[in-house]
Amino acid sequence: MPRRPQRIVCLSTETVEVLYALGEAERIVGISGFTVRPARARKEKPKVSGFSSARIDRILAVRPDLVLAFSDMQADICRDLIRAGIAVHVFNQRDIDGILAMITTVGALVGAQARADALVAQLDAQLDAARHAGEAHIERLGRRARVYFEEWDTPMICGIRWVSELIEVAGGEDVFRERATEPGASARIIADGAEVVAQQPDIILASWCGKKVRAEQIAARSGWDALDAVSRHHIYEIKSALILSPGIVAIEAGLPAIAAALDKLSNDALSGR
User: What is the DSSP letter of 142?
Assistant: First the structure.
């Protein structure tokens, strides 16, 4: 009997992305309907669950010997799968180190440790390069640019920890970095837009999960016309698929998107601040 899992169901997009990157896609027998990377996975693999909800019979129908899940949001699904006799591994990565550790663990689970280590080394190199570029950006502008990252608009929710860390890597300063350590969205709600105005961000980055960011709606908020980020039109969307998933994509694509937005700031935008 094989000692490594041969039939894996991935309940979130991050582990799908990792298994494909490691050349282990043939082990995947089911994915979440919210999987976005790689795009081919949506065509090749059966969708057996949502994200926070699932029909257990659909998962059991593909006969998994391991289910990979993410966070307490999938706790009920995991409970029912465990009761059905299925092995479950739940990840809970919330920061950059957690993302890299998740990759290492997935590699170990499928016997692809060397490839996982190589992938982590590659991502570490990308992070190092981005830090150097971020330092150059800070030097050009004279300080870190103050960044407000908005994960949702109604209610306003600021960014989670890995997003905040990536902003710092790129040379910015997350104006709500203390709140970013809170894993739950409810603890990151901005109850009053005046809180953002008080932080005086130089740039606004928004990523509204599942819907298009409307910069004009952000700019029209009461009192926000006092912000340089608004008056100088430094409001930029970062596609949620690139940044709100704590996996490879956040480093490979989300981080460059943040850096590109910061590069649009000029010395003039920060003068006198």
Answer: S
- Amino acid, res. 216: E
Distance CA 177, CA 115 (A): 33
CA gap 174, 177 in Å, rounded: 5
pLDDT in tens, 111-129: 999 999 999 999 999 999 9
The secondary structure of residue 253, as a DSSP letter, is I
Burial 143-161 (b: 16+ CB within 10 A, else e): ebbbbbbbbbeeebbbbbb
- For strand 156-158 and strand 145-153, is the pairing parallel, antiparallel, or unpaired? antiparallel
Q: Which two tokens stand for residue 181?
A: 């350590």
d(CA 172, CA 192): 23
Strand partners, 205: 149, 236
pLDDT digits (tens, 9 = 90+) for 46-102: 999 988 888 999 999 999 999 999 999 999 999 999 999 999 999 999 999 999 999
Rounded distance, CA 166 to CA 196, Å? 20
Residue with tokens 């090749």: 44
Answer for the pair 45, 39: CB distance below 8 angstroms, yes or no. Answer: no
Whether this prediction's pTM lies above 0.90 is answered by yes
Instruction: Show Cβ contacts of residue 148 under 8 Å, excluding neighbours closer than 6 positions.
Output: 158, 175, 176, 196, 199, 201, 203, 204, 205, 229
Cα distance between residue 231 and residue 245, in whole Å: 31
What radius of gyration, in Å, describes the C-alpha atoms of the chain?
Answer: 20
Rounded distance between C-alpha atoms, residue 182 and residue 165, angstroms: 13
